[in-house]
Amino acid sequence: MSRLLLIIPAYNEQENIDRVVGNLSRNYPQFDYMVINDGSRDQTAEICRQNHYPMIDLPVNLGLAGAFQTGLKYAYRHGYDYALQFDADGQHLPEYIQPMLDRIRQGYDIVIASRFVETPKPFSMRMLGSNLIQAALKFTTGATIHDPTSGMRMFNRAMIREFALGFNYGPEPDTLSYLIKNGAKVAEVPVCMEERLAGASYLTPINSAKYMLRMLISILLIQNFRRRD
User: Fold this and answer.
1) 211 — pLDDT class (breaks 50, 70, 90)
2) Cα→Cα distances 36→17, 137, 159, 217, Å
């Protein structure tokens, strides 16, 4: 049987981590998971230890890209066939894991949990940014990705290796653009997502605007000069 690892990056998620990981442990025992404690300054690591949740405890904060690559290195070294980025804040719903797994087994390299395959995007500045990134991806790759900023993404063994052994592979839309240009097959699965119930997101309005601008510049310009190792 193919093996799937859920990679759960966590930074200062003491208010959410037990609810999220406890739900996985109790109700989805068929899936392996690994919490990547990204140098949290709160009780995230202690809660994981007390509950015996599998955890890699990073001594410093590496950011999402570094934490996720840590998980992918673990998945690669332990022979997993698939890996899923799964947020520790409770927004991602585990009932969509199996549909994503079924989809990627059809021969895709990446499967994205998409909120907007069947549902139109609400009007907001954040969704305007998402539309711009979607348009940039379409312009540069020809691919239509309805939810390019979704953080719930599944990768096959080839992509696990790419992320684990390569440098500069953040789990972001610009990397998606680069991989599609290099032949990666991408599919989307329609999902619903929850709002963060506790704690604070780093994506403040100002940070969101900076993020969207950085992604657009990277997709439209920088990725054209990127070379594969």
Assistant:
1) confident
2) 11, 29, 19, 29
